[in-house]
Amino acid sequence: MTIELDKIVSKYRDKGFVSGLPVFSRTETDEILNYIEGLEEKHKKGAGGHSLNQFFRVNGHVVIPKLAEIARNTTILDIIEALLGPNLLAWSVELFIKEPNSAKTVSWHQDITYWGMGETDDEITAWLALSDVSIEAGCMRFIPGSHREGLVEHRDTFDKNGRCFHASGKNRSKNRRVGIAIRYVTPEVRDHAPGRDWAMPVRGEIPRGGWDCIAGPRGLFHPNDLMLYDRILAGQTKTLAEGARNQVKLYGS
Ligand SMILES: O=C(O)CCC(=O)C(=O)O
Hints:
The strands form 2 sheets. A 5-stranded mixed sheet has the order 3-6-1-7-8. A 3-stranded antiparallel sheet has the order 2-5-4, with no helix packed on it.
């Protein structure tokens, strides 16, 4: 299937999201999934004092080379460039795993409420399915057009376009449901945001102000990257705490 960038752009502007874009073949997603499951097997105790799940939940690209490599995938970047322009940074890479027959849900939310970036259009999440993600398995759900309404006060358990309301349901299937969310931003996101933040330049010019640029992991769980991970986590946790009125909790149950 060919990817028609102009159609993607107009759908995205209209609905706030675009779905079903082909990026990896089934063989490639299986290979990524095997890699992730291999990490779960070999690093049961995590690394650097963190559980493996911590790295899966946020900023996995800082310490896991495979996740940084996926964030640099040129097919994804071509799509994101068509939407955001030529200068791109990967801000976070996260895994969303729901075990078979799991009651875990993600309640309706707008991502940028919490990210200390202000109300910006310069952030896009690329969500990649690594398994079959049917309705039964708890697929992503969106409210089309909700990105045009701006940020809305909401009190969900986790108080996309970063303004598009989205959620996901229980995994009622007998298979694991696994997705990777890559959060891309432009350098301009920080032009009006206080403080600094960390991100990995993936295309175009290296940003000048407001960003500490990271190069990507030196190896799997490299000690220097684990220290960097802690620094980033501490900085971003402070921003999150300032932005959230309620306790931030990702999964509903
Ligand atoms: O994969 C999911 O279930 C939720 C993902 C999500 O909420 C996000 O990418 O912001």
